[in-house]
Amino acid sequence: MRGLQVMAGFTLYPDRALIEITGKIFNGNATPRHFLWWANPAVKGGDAHQSVFPPDVTAVFDHGKRDVSAFPIATGTYYKVDYSAGVDISRYKNVPVPTSYMAEKSDYDFVGAYHHDERGGLLHVADHHVSPGKKQWSWGYGDFGQAWDRNLTDENGPYIELMTGVFTDNQPDFTWLAPYEEKVFVQNFLPYSELGMVQNANTQLALKLVRESGQLLLGVYAIAPLNHIVVEVSADHQPLYETQLTLKPGESWQQTLPENGVGRLTLKVKTAENQPLLDYQEHITQQTPLPEPAIAPALPEAIHNGDELYFIGQHLEQYNHASRYAGDYYRRAVELDPQDYRNNVALGTLAFNSADWALAEQCARAALQRAHRLNKNPRDGEASMLLASVLERMGDDAGAWDHYYKASWSGNCRDAAWWSLARQAMKRGDVADALEKVNTSLRFNASNPLAMGLKALALANSGQKKAALEFIFASLEQYPLSYPLHCARWMIERSDDARETLLRITGRRGVNASLLAGWLLSIGQTSAVKEVLAVLDSQEALPMLWRASLSDDANERQQFIAAAEHCHAHNVRFPNSLDEVQMLQSLGDSAFARYLLGCFWYSKRRYDEAVSCWRETLEKSPDYAPAHRLLGVYSWNKQQDATQALAYLQRAVALEPDNARFLFELDFLQKLLARPVHERLTTLVERKAVVLKRDDLTAELLSLWNASGHYADAAAILDTRVFHPWEGGEGKITGQYLLNQLHRALQFIERGAFKQATDCLKAALRYPDNLGGGATAWANG
Fold first, then answer.
1. pTM higher than the cut 0.85
2. Beta strands in 497-581 (DSSP E)
3. What are phi and psi of 187, to 5 degrees?
4. Burial environment of residue 467 by CB neighbours within 10 A (0 to 12, 13 to 18, 19 or more)
5. Where does the record place its TPR repeats (predicted)?
6. pLDDT tens per residue, range 492-523
7. H or E segment at 31?
8. CA angle, corner 175, sides to 173 and 179, nearest 5?
9. What distances in angstroms separate CA 641 from CA 305, 646, 647, one per listed residue?
10. Hey, what domains does the chain have and what are their CATH numbers?
């Protein structure tokens, strides 16, 4: 997901009661990226809440499609809860534990939620071909859920997340973006009232048609003005009822008819001119088997098919899988067939994204050996595009130029290839050629803001300043948040308004400063990079290091490096772009830059390079605690060297004694090493003020006190401290509270103080609010 530029535009209409959200997601990288988009409005929960899923939703999935349930009436076990009696899980009051469910599929364009007591709700409307994601998340009505509700709301109690996915139907269900591709979509959120459960909706109206107690309940809710609309009801295509209505936005109409055993019903709403507005044909539920939950893919060594290995690797990469690595599958495929085109491109792309130029080049050339064996004009240009990108990063612009041209022959790479050629022409100083090539690229892909910015600068540099500004302002109509366009405007105009607008749009954020620095360098505007970074003056580490890398003054360079380290302590962001990596590589004399570079290598599984950088950091700055800490993490996680890991982490804590994170990791390692309780306890008690900065570390102190008989010390913290829950830490604080009450009760029993023992046991039946947690139905059996 790194390197994506995201815009969301919110539109209100004077004649429609809805909010329209237009999303634009752009991949400004030379390689594919993936993204996940879920919009999560919160709606009021409680006993009267009900999820409004389309009538054709008969099955729902858990995250990752690991589990499945019938819907709305669950009949099996879901989230470890027994619903075998048949339970309506669309109702909040029937879901006792934290629960997600996502519609397996639906042919309808809406999803929503309704509160029956307040007679109002919320609907989401979007084309289901683009926005298939329909989800509800609830913390559950139990003690545990109520504790989370208290922590996450001010005063209005339980809530539900009505979640709507675009280009996704599950979490995590990511979608690919090709290099320089933009995806655009529209979502609509709207309130509605009175109708309760609705059966269809669009951006003009919502419809209700249900059978209940021998009657037909009809309803129309107006989102837009509905003037002289015709409402028709038929049964098996035979007319049953018709009326004409006029409704203002926010108004509703309802009608009750006798059922009289009619056949399948259809409700249609049309204009007075007989143009259809919306209809609903009564959904007939059929007995269909539940879909199968997802299963884990086989390990790479058990697979002997390159095609299967490729698609498993793509899945793992796309889903950011936590325990499987896509590269293992691509490598296995290349072992089976060293010139496998797709797997070499996939492995080379992973290597490229990890700044491993040698492996990326090797894979790209191996792929081209297969693609070019019979002729050199393959339909797919990805390998040529990859090789060109690698060569450019390695400084071989001439070689890159040739392969970008070759990639431009293939339809799936032509816009990216022509954009890359335009960049290189601009770097060469051939503005006319750059302008010609960027126009070609924009003809194939008019939504690339990087190319738009280059075109504006090329126009200005060729003496067409007026045309450049006209192009910028016309483009900003469609892309008002485009950093390259605003940057180009300032570079051309040099006006106060252009400067202030650039500062406002970028927010002077470090990530935006880095993006502009990398973009300008890629088109040969080195002097402009210095000026733009100075104008933005982002008080973050990486922009400061950019300025250091571009400075010719040794003193100024050191000042920027010192400022970067100071900024990093207050605003942490690690490098994650290839431009930032190459910038850091140019600062080989900086201990801090080597530290950050090592963090990038570690995140990309390049452990030897990471360790080398951190050791260089300590050679230049022996007391730099973060490097000691990370070498400790590496020593344990990757080498299982307990002695070395302990030494590094102890040194990190000694250098930064007030750093609670370092202390937590040191104690965690001691716990893994089964160090005596009294030893760990001594360490934490001596640093109690630091321990109390973190709830997770405080939980460890409580466990040690409870394990060693210091029950009063633990009780003092449990009675007074306000804890904040964290995902993954569920039960850690409440568990220590329960243990503490039980141990104290046993102490009182030994003393014959049965009244006090009873009080402790009664207290253990309910968790106080200050603990930030509650019992789950699972814990209750």
1. yes
2. none
3. -125, 150
4. middle
5. 591-624
6. 999 999 999 999 999 999 999 999 999 999 99
7. none
8. 155
9. 38, 9, 10
10. 4-193 (2.70.98.10), 205-281 (2.60.40.10), 676-781 (no CATH)
